[in-house]
Amino acid sequence: MNWTETRNSNVNIKNVKLGANVTILDNVNIEASKVDSVQIGKYSIIKENSTIRLPSNGVSNIGAYVIIGNNCDIRSLNIGNRVMIEDGCVLNDGCVIYECCLIKSNCIIPSKMIIPAYCEVGGVPGKDFYIKPLNSSFKKVIEYEAKYLNIHY
Amino acid sequence: MSKLYNDSFIYCCTTKVIDIHSIDKTWLFELADLYFCPYCQCPKSKYEIIPRVHSKFCSNCLTDYTSKPDMMRCIKNCFICPLCSSSMGIKMMDHDSNGKSFEFSCQFCDYNYDTGVVYKPKSLHGIIEELKTDTFIRKCKQILKMADKTEELSERVRMNLKLSQLDKKEEAESLIDEFEIAQYPIGKILTLKKSIRCSTCRNLLLDYMESEPTINKFQIKFNAIDYLPTTSLTKLKSNVYLLHFVNPLDVKMSAKISSISQIVLSNFEFSLGASTSSFIKGIPSAYLSLNNSTAKSELILRKGDKLYNKIEDGEIEENLDRFIEVGVNWISIPIIIEDDSLKTVPIYVTLKTEQPPKGLERVINGLNAGYWNVLKVPK
């Protein structure tokens, strides 16, 4: 563990490998059963009331400059660098998110789904689920946002 | 200072002149969604570019389909649910005399599909194609056959006439009810990597370095966010707002702004310094929070004792120039919005640089651009 900033209440982080400048806010629960089974890259931020659980097969890897919003339930296998997950998202068991993706609020990503790089994802499967291309500018935008949130909270 | 949620839009349309009293939202784009053509020296929206497929691949199995221009779906064993588009799990079961059956199950909803026992080796797509025997598919195939045969043209015309007479939705639905429509697993839609050209000068604005699905490096990248300043508006007091400009370039930039009569601007012309490697130095003071120790120490360094001074009523209106704040690569200008009903502020921004920005030395001598920036008034 290099450095982490947490607030003073109800944060459960055990067996987690954290990169530099990771921010974890209130009531975040990271359920990691084995040592280093959850890895979080630098400048990532996990906002309030979010849960990170291990996928059914393997470890959970969260890249650098990843923003996880409030009330999210993450059970993904891999989240690439510079990914923005807005509030209330559910990432089901074993899904993979490649680099530079924007997951819109209250989106549900089904199990084992692979989201390619530079994509915007939103909606609920069977209802209004969509995957559309994202401008390459978002690489810079999401990195800026993660760095800004690091000095905001 | 969020670049993602900052209520600042750029009017980007070369064919239609902006009407500042009723701005057409179709042509308003966030800075992050725009490209910048260094040859035309103006931002380019998705309607002013020419995309071309650079490569295409299946994001599930990473098979490259670039050499197959007609294919839009993966032909390998990557299937999605016809109801919810989730990935499908496939189970294979062995039967007597070398028979095999395949069971598709959706990872998200309750959808299931069983192929039954298959004896001849075939691709999964081929097996599903053979099993498509419901009345709707049969009718479709029949219509397709009829299209090729002139002797059965009258039948085709009769069916088309029947369809054209259906003007009510209920009637159309009743016709669909006549058919049995089954749902089959479908191949995963391919992911495209697109190179982008300017529709005016045809120069490349975005191009990938490699067609490898997992490598996403760009050879050419002209995004507006790298060339045009980030603009935002924050509320200072009642009808006084702060207009922030942040320079993304590594060279000094001079800017000129003009707006509508309901807005009192303290400064029309200003210069912005080159961007800095220090992240915190490049953030306007209005966006630094006192809750964070790093941001607080930076604020104290910038403002000193004035940090906790209260602004008295009418103080800003009397001397707007005193409240202009200049940073390394940013400026915050106080503006007064006299009309309370105003929801958006249109500002015309003219930019000029004496030197070419990094990477554009061979293309231009200096940046010289002008565009309309529309900002939402914060409540």
TrEMBL record, chain A:
<dbReference type="Pfam" id="PF21711">
    <property type="entry name" value="DCTN5"/>
</dbReference>
<comment type="similarity">
    <text>Belongs to the dynactin subunits 5/6 family. Dynactin subunit 5 subfamily.</text>
</comment>
<keyword id="KW-0206">Cytoskeleton</keyword>
<dbReference type="InterPro" id="IPR047125">
    <property type="entry name" value="DCTN5"/>
</dbReference>
<keyword id="KW-0963">Cytoplasm</keyword>
<dbReference type="GO" id="GO:0005869">
    <property type="term" value="C:dynactin complex"/>
</dbReference>
<dbReference type="InterPro" id="IPR011004">
    <property type="entry name" value="Trimer_LpxA-like_sf"/>
</dbReference>
<protein>
    <recommendedName>
        <fullName>Dynactin subunit 5</fullName>
    </recommendedName>
</protein>
From TrEMBL, chain B:
<keyword id="KW-1017">Isopeptide bond</keyword>
<protein>
    <recommendedName>
        <fullName>Dynactin subunit 4</fullName>
    </recommendedName>
</protein>
<dbReference type="GO" id="GO:0005869">
    <property type="term" value="C:dynactin complex"/>
</dbReference>
<dbReference type="InterPro" id="IPR008603">
    <property type="entry name" value="DCTN4"/>
</dbReference>
<comment type="subunit">
    <text>Subunit of dynactin, a multiprotein complex part of a tripartite complex with dynein and a adapter, such as BICDL1, BICD2 or HOOK3. The dynactin complex is built around ACTR1A/ACTB filament and consists of an actin-related filament composed of a shoulder domain, a pointed end and a barbed end. Its length is defined by its flexible shoulder domain. The soulder is composed of 2 DCTN1 subunits, 4 DCTN2 and 2 DCTN3. The 4 DCNT2 (via N-terminus) bind the ACTR1A filament and act as molecular rulers to determine the length. The pointed end is important for binding dynein-dynactin cargo adapters.</text>
</comment>
<comment type="similarity">
    <text>Belongs to the dynactin subunit 4 family.</text>
</comment>
<dbReference type="Pfam" id="PF05502">
    <property type="entry name" value="Dynactin_p62"/>
</dbReference>
<dbReference type="GO" id="GO:0001725">
    <property type="term" value="C:stress fiber"/>
</dbReference>
<keyword id="KW-0175">Coiled coil</keyword>
<keyword id="KW-0597">Phosphoprotein</keyword>
<keyword id="KW-0206">Cytoskeleton</keyword>
<keyword id="KW-0963">Cytoplasm</keyword>
<keyword id="KW-0832">Ubl conjugation</keyword>
<keyword id="KW-0007">Acetylation</keyword>
